Amino acid sequence: MKIGSIKLDNWLAMAPLAGVTNLPFRLLVRRLGAGLVATEMVSAMGLVHDQRKTHAYIKSHLDEKPLSVQIFGARPDVMAKAAQIVIDAGADIVDINMGCPVKKVTRTGAGAALLQDLKQIEQMVSAVRVVCSVPLTVKIRSGWSRENPVACEAARVIENCGSDALTIHPRYRTEFFSGCADWGVIRRIKEQVNIPVIGNGDVVSPSDALKMREETGCDGVMIGRAAMANPWIFRQILQMEKGETVQIPDLTERRGLIMEHYDLLSESMGEHKAALNMRGLLLRYTKGLAYSSRFRGRITSIKDLKSLASTMDEYFSVLGSHYQETKD
Which of 100, 132, 161, 218 is labelled catalytic? Predict the structure, then answer.
């Protein structure tokens, strides 16, 4: 898949997720097969006002390239300035968020709130396009509510304003993440625009990604929540596409990734914060494994590398014995 001047390794993208797609996680999923990674949603106002915490979100590394930086805001002039800032910081692609349903974002007129006014969409994309020297993409939803399904109209406006690609999550803002994503919206948009269309929503398994592309004709597939617990999903999709045996990570690989993730977090935020961050990550990485509920009681005791390694050794030793007994 190609976005503007940038040719990706493949057609799979990691979705921007608040509190998840930080630099360490992006490095992991990039190595595991994601063709494109993105920062979590970054406040344009925070960037323009030079807030240190906001600027930390756009810190990047050569090994994750190409990197898409997703910005959000309600004012076209501020978004244009933010785009220039992230480009100077190393963004390979600038992505405008027009899909976030969270109230603290939409009440400012940003995120999915922009879908209530096509003129606002036109002004926003046009303002950013003028200053954007790298490929520009936009992520939208089906609309604000079922009473006003604007996705196809918005897609045409976005294309006409110079966007190089479009991502669509086919749910309305009022639905948040409930119900089922309507992949038919992805197909209809693909039929009406000439820029690459990336589908997003309800891809929870490798076969879902292939099914979405087949049913909608989309150029790429963006994966969000499924990759949080299974970052191997990108590798698995590519294997399934080639007709190869889909590799399920064994205990050694799973434990190795957990420790690697911790090391990357420690480099990024320090050992103490990394340990606290790992507590939540471990709930995801061990979901569905034997004795995971018992293991959760030990997670709160993790405070550094030593305690993490000790807990991992104990838990994975129990797991190894369990699966050996099951095999026998």
Answer: 100
